[in-house]
Design goal:
single chain; alpha+beta
Length: about 375
């Protein structure tokens, strides 16, 4: 495999200079992202997710898959021509492309119309490729590169991608008395850990005007939430800040979902039990991987009226923290659950080794035909 450490960034980053290896990398993620929807469906069946939440997570999974497909077109000719750049990914604690790749993709999207306007059509490029093969008996590498870039910019124009910033959207849930309940969701591609992170916020609105139609509160709420979407911040800090800054918006539950890391003997450097599992599994191509899915969950235990100035009071949420061994103060969450999605062969080795660190991790095993089997 042609993996080159990029010392200009960090030794945790590597570049793919080989066409076939780059294709294998993106094919692996195409398979993995397809399983995310099935895992969400399994959680819905168990009652851990509502139908609305499953649909939202499915939308983010689909947009993540679309982003990987767009990147696979951008790097389709990596190693085949000097003009085709290598793809950089985090090989240590992520397995995903570095955040810079998504930032560059956003810049490319802003210029996509200009690139497409000055480029030959797909049909014309294919015709020129055939004529070069027949006439010159040579591989039309430059034309293949031009075609891959054309298809890449078309994918950007088509949209539906997971960006470095995916601003908050809002879904009405129900009305209870004089309050409206919403599910606010947004996502980021965290630049520190190079992983997609999804946020789900259940909020009650006691304002006079519905939040989505309020051109004063809703833009402010969106900006506030995006500014707080940092992995280093505890959920408790984010929720309390929102509760304090918006007196008639009451956060009842906040979840943060990390998609990844992705581990693979072929691409990543890992330590601990997962390293031994993947090494001993000797899984066939396409089944040498494991994907971690972590859910942090913070829930409001009750609401209290507190003084706000001399003559008024406001409602403040009291959040429940994990009662076990005082971990709630450390995690800033009511509950945290780690799950791992992996094919059958790595799971068999994991079950045989039964390392202590994985005994409380939820396992989702990908069986024949992509069927998901849930186990503890």
């Amino acid at each position: 495999m042609t993996l080159t450490v990029d010392d200009t960034l960090t030794k945790d980053h590597a570049q793919l200079f080989d066409t076939l290896i780059a294709r294998r990398y993106f094919e692996k993620f195409d398979v993995i992202t397809g399983h995310l929807v099935r895992v969400a469906g399994e959680l819905e069946t168990e009652g851990a997710l509502t139908r609305t939440e499953t649909r939202i997570l499915g939308r983010y999974a689909a947009s993540l898959a679309a982003t990987f497909r767009a990147l696979s077109l951008k790097y389709l000719m990596t190693g085949r021509t000097e003009t085709a750049p290598p793809m950089t990914f985090d090989r240590h604690e992520s397995g995903f492309p570095v955040a810079q790749e998504l930032m560059l993709m956003a810049v490319d999207a802003a210029q996509a119309g200009k690139h497409l306007a000055g480029a030959a059509s797909v049909e014309e490029l294919k015709d020129r490729m055939v004529r070069q093969i027949v006439r010159d008996l040579t591989i039309p590498t430059q034309l293949q590169f031009a075609l891959s870039q054309r298809m890449y910019y078309e994918a950007l124009v088509q949209g539906g991608l997971f960006w470095a910033r995916n601003d908050p959207d809002i879904q009405w849930v129900e009305d209870v008395g004089d309050r409206r309940r919403y599910l606010v969701h947004w996502a980021v591609y965290d630049t520190q850990i190079n992983l997609p992170v999804i946020y789900l916020l259940n909020v009650e609105d006691s304002g006079r005007k519905a939040l989505p139609q309020d051109d004063r509160r809703w833009p402010q709420a969106q900006q506030h939430l995006m500014a707080q979407s940092l992995d280093g911040l505890k959920l408790l800090t984010i929720a309390q800040g929102f509760d304090k800054d918006f007196e008639n918006l009451h956060p009842k539950r906040l979840r943060r979902i990390h998609i990844g890391p992705m581990y693979s003997n072929s691409f990543t450097l890992q330590s601990g039990p997962i390293s031994e599992v993947l090494e001993k599994a000797v899984a066939p191509e396409g089944q040498d991987w494991a994907l971690v899915w972590t859910v942090e969950d913070l829930q409001s235990e009750r609401a209290e009226q507190v003084k706000d100035g001399w003559f008024s009071t406001v409602e403040r949420q009291i959040f429940a923290l994990d009662p076990f061994a005082g971990r709630g103060a450390d995690t800033g969450a009511t509950h945290m659950e780690r799950m791992v999605v992996l094919p059958e062969r790595p799971f068999q080795v994991l079950a045989e080794l039964n390392p202590p660190g994985f005994r409380n991790v939820r396992k989702f095993v990908v069986g024949a035909g992509g069927r998901i089997i849930s186990t503890r």
